[in-house]
User: Which sequence fits this backbone?
């Protein structure tokens, strides 16, 4: 009997404490979690790995979440990867929030959010 391959989630967040807690939550639910501390690190990982979902913090050193989303969604090889953006800025999650010229993530979570809300968004984005 074959064991199903776990879905892979890439977590891009510079806050190590939040990243560790999120990774622990997702790992307990059977997901494989990859971590990048900056958007640039996440883009580098995407050169060789294809996660099933990307959880992306908006506020990152260097390029912010909007810019990283636009880069990912502009590349035909990564455009289909669902992105869940986490932000404390509720205006970004409104239909015309953020920079209107940039491509948008597939879903938003407004901080603070619960573990249940995070897991539900991941479930929806993975079709699970």
Assistant:
């Amino acid at each position: 009997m074959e064991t199903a391959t776990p879905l892979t989630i890439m977590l891009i967040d510079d806050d190590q404490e939040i990243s560790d807690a999120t990774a622990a939550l997702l790992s307990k639910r059977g997901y494989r979690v990859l971590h990048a501390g900056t958007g640039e690190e996440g883009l580098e990982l995407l050169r060789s790995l294809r996660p099933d979902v990307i959880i992306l913090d908006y506020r990152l050193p260097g390029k912010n979440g909007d810019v990283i989303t636009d880069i990912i969604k502009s590349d035909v090889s990564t455009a289909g990867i669902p992105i869940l953006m986490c932000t404390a800025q509720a205006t970004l999650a409104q239909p015309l929030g953020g920079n209107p010229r940039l491509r948008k993530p597939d879903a938003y979570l407004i901080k603070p959010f619960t573990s249940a809300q995070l897991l539900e968004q991941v479930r929806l984005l993975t079709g699970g």
Q: What stands out?
A: The beta strands are 8-12, 32-36, 53-57, 83-87, 107-110. Residues 10 and 49 are 9 Å apart (CA to CA).
